[in-house]
């Protein structure tokens, strides 16, 4: 299981706001998540997507290309991927649980 942190930046928009483009990207992710191959989480600065690496690359390409349908002529996409081969339980939730465990140990 891999986790991708992606930021898709439409360039040349009419206003500084890109929230309508982010909403369109989330619609694509909802559709793909309903198929059962990925999970995702929107954050204030990016979107996290979890799944098999080959599937993530397909989804990222679809997301990148979806912005062009909004009459945008240029798109920049930043991708950061975290994948572990030494554990089968590598997930967004387990990463958070691990940090929370360390925090609770410090408070004890």
UniProtKB/TrEMBL annotation:
<dbReference type="InterPro" id="IPR002767">
    <property type="entry name" value="Thiamine_BP"/>
</dbReference>
<dbReference type="InterPro" id="IPR029756">
    <property type="entry name" value="MTH1187/YkoF-like"/>
</dbReference>
<dbReference type="InterPro" id="IPR051614">
    <property type="entry name" value="UPF0045_domain"/>
</dbReference>
<dbReference type="GO" id="GO:0005829">
    <property type="term" value="C:cytosol"/>
</dbReference>
<feature type="region of interest" description="Disordered">
    <location>
        <begin position="84"/>
        <end position="108"/>
    </location>
</feature>
<feature type="domain" description="Thiamine-binding protein">
    <location>
        <begin position="4"/>
        <end position="100"/>
    </location>
</feature>
<comment type="similarity">
    <text>Belongs to the UPF0045 family.</text>
</comment>
<protein>
    <recommendedName>
        <fullName>Thiamine-binding protein domain-containing protein</fullName>
    </recommendedName>
</protein>
<dbReference type="Pfam" id="PF01910">
    <property type="entry name" value="Thiamine_BP"/>
</dbReference>
């Amino acid at each position: 299981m891999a986790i991708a942190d992606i930021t898709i930046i439409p360039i040349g928009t009419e206003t500084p706001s890109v929230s309508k483009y982010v909403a369109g990207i989330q619609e694509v992710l909802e559709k793909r998540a309903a198929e059962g191959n990925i999970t995702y989480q929107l954050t204030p600065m990016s979107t996290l997507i979890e799944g098999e690496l080959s599937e993530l690359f397909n989804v990222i390409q679809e997301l990148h290309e979806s912005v062009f349908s909004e009459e945008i002529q240029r798109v920049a996409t930043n991708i950061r991927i975290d994948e572990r081969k030494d554990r089968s339980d590598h997930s967004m939730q387990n990463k958070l649980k691990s940090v929370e465990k360390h925090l609770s140990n410090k408070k004890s």
